[in-house]
User: Fold this.
Amino acid sequence: MFPERFTFSIADWVNTWVDELVTNYGDVFRHISDTLLWAIINLEGLLRGTPWWLMLAIVAAIAWHATRRALPTLMIVGLLFLVGAVGLWDKLMQTLALMLIATLISVIIGIPLGILSARSNRLRTVLMPLLDIMQTMPSFVYLIPVLMLFGLGKVPAIFATVIYAMPPLIRLTDLGIRQVDGEVMEAVNAFGANRLQQLFGVQLPLALPSIMAGINQTTMMALSMVVIASMIGARGLGEDVLIGIQTLNVGRGLEAGLAIVILAVVIDRITQAYGRARHQASQ
Amino acid sequence: MSKIVVKNVFKIFGARPEAALNMIQQGQSKDQVLAATGCVVGVNDLSLAIEPGEIFVIMGLSGSGKSTLVRHFNRLIDPTSGEILVDGEDILQYDRQALREFRRRKISMVFQSFGLLPHKTVLDNVAYGLKVRGESKAHCAERALHWIDTVGLKGYEKSYPHQLSGGMRQRVGLARALAADTDIILMDEAFSALDPLIRAEMQDQLLELQQALHKTIVFITHDLDEAVRIGNRIAILKDGQLIQVGTPKEILYQPADEYVDRFVQRRVATV
Assistant:
């Protein structure tokens, strides 16, 4: 038994802090929430409004552009067709919208953070443990305050997804930039390139395979949050998994589960193909 | 007026440069400083002057501080103390903007492992110095093509560095430095990574180009043959200190000390 006099709790302190946040800044959070919701709903509307065959054609075009090979392109389109065929097309689009927004936010925050962290060792020392926490903390722990601030629905789902999915992108952006050959950077410096010329002309292009691997990881992790997202009221494929569990309908759960896997495979293949740099030094 | 003047430059790597500087100025050795402060002395009280239009070779074994020294001339490395003048201007006083201008217009560099941009074509690599300083696209292309032709890489404009052999890559590096059209070119062991035949070819090409261009070239090497072959004057470095400066003849026939003599003897022995 652990001695009583050594114990303490931060629970009360955290509770008061969150309560104060909710009472004092509720409006601010409501505003953020509304803006985000507006973006999600519009994107979702667009995706669901697009006829299924046009959507498949667009995906096929993207897949072809990325892979330049017929077989993977056909596979990707065929798999998505299957999802539609089992009647999950609408939910697929809802999940896709959620995932795209979460990925977009992760990219907007994650890549600049990765760039800064590659530049400063001090920032990196602070950031890395923080990223560890973001990845290992069970999501339900931060879902409670997020729910209190934003209410139920898609917005807290996005937040939870971004917190969980962003770390690999930051890590891999940082890594990609740090791995750029030191002599190349020296040469670029010696010719008088300024910071922006170094960043956009050399560092980012050379770190691109690593950054794309990060985006790939982010999308995969975002998809793995789909079921949890549906628990707090975000619609989509996770919803069907949840209903499958609640009603012991194993078949329905499996169908939705497979649809999530298919979406993951499709996005994975496409982002990976973009990550393969076309002109990398072969050695 | 000398093109580059270096006055009493010290460079100390490590966490306590002031303490180390104090010790070395009191005449303690490199090893004593390392033991006491954990700092490495890169350049130790070095002064020299490089004249316009000469090929000035800086020679020494690895670890003698020659690559460190040459990086002081375009401030890729800043000295711990001392003065560096280029065309009579104290380049250590330059702010970031002035330093960038200086690097863009006055001094360019060729690197041992080439330092080429792997994601850009030969043409874009050669034009890099011009592009960075904001020259027009047409001017960049025209100049780059001219220098690609001069170094003998015509037909490879659209290739990427990884498709070229070592010798060809260093020609790209040389063309990039020449295209920037700067008075001074620093060459840090530029030919050391190449095999002997290609190396001799590159040395000839450099001498031939120099006859027409009269640049001030600072050439780093660890090879006395190379130094004697291309240098107008040679400086010999040991442990970050200048041991001797002179024409190739002076180095060969009047070596200043045993260290220089050993270089010379080795050369005689291999001939």
User: Anything to note?
Assistant: The CA atoms of residues 26 and 209 of chain A lie 41 Å apart. Chain A has 13 helices and no strands.
